[in-house]
Amino acid sequence: MHIVDKLFYLRFFAPILLIQSYFYKIQRQIHDIITDLALISTKSRELTAENDRFSAFLKSNAILGLDQKVQLLNHQISEKVDCQQCGNCCKTLMIVVSDEEANAVAKVLDQKRQQFDEQYVEKGSHGLMIMNAMPCHFLKDNSCTIYLNRFEGCREFPALHLPGFQKRIFTHLMHYERCPIIFNVIEQLKIDVHFEKDPS
Ligand code: SF4
Ligand code: SF4
User: Do 186 and 164 share a domain, yes or no?
Assistant: First the structure.
């Protein structure tokens, strides 16, 4: 593009793009976040059939920019949910522990690896290790006491920042009742993609 054309483009189109993005942000403001786990649990039971329909809807419709919509919602909703007040994933998830992670945490705790294994993990078939207690041993006052060395599953959850939401909707719906971030992202997403909710 010639420099004169570039200047023309910037002068006339840049303000339009800025205005569009401003209105997009206004439109995308999130209200009515629900964080009460008891209420989420009730709603989850009520919305089981609707969520099955939503899962089928997402699988049969290629929604343009679905991952970006989910990632933006995740960002906006995570800012409004206080994980330290909630801690529900640390209380209810089965955490997988790799060999390297076990070594790292044992070192931080100043334990021999054997002692760590006996105290904290259970070994399943195929050598898979999982934490042997729920809530997690390392949760104290709703905070993780090994935060810098927490396990990969802990770092990733609720995994809404990852691509491929359409393929993972089943997994997210499994955690819909457990995690207020997932619950609110999915409820807001239904609105954003013009999914027809069941009459309430
Ligand atoms: S290791 Fe920390 S982040 Fe992971 S489940 Fe336990 S308390 Fe939660
Ligand atoms: S990630 Fe979800 S379940 Fe875990 S503490 Fe945050 S809101 Fe609660």
Answer: yes
pLDDT tens, residue order, the chain (200 aa): 444 454 444 454 455 445 444 444 545 567 789 999 999 999 999 999 999 999 999 999 999 999 999 999 999 999 999 999 999 999 999 999 999 999 999 999 999 999 999 999 999 878 899 999 999 999 999 999 999 999 999 999 999 999 999 999 999 999 999 999 999 999 999 999 999 998 87
Nearest partner of 129 among 98, 106, 92, judged by Cα: 98
Residues 190 and 98 in one domain: no
* CA 97 to ligand 1 center in whole angstroms: 11
Handedness of CA 104, 107, 113, 115 (dihedral sign): negative
The number of domains in the chain is 2
Q: For residue 88, which atom of ligand 2 is closest to its CA? A: 3
Q: Check whether residue 47 and residue 141 sit in a common domain.
A: no
Q: Where would I find the beta strands (DSSP E) of the chain? A: 96-97, 121-123, 129-131, 139-140, 143-144
CA of 22 to the centre of ligand 2 (A): 30
Residue 21 in domain: no
Whether 14 is covered by a domain: the verdict is no
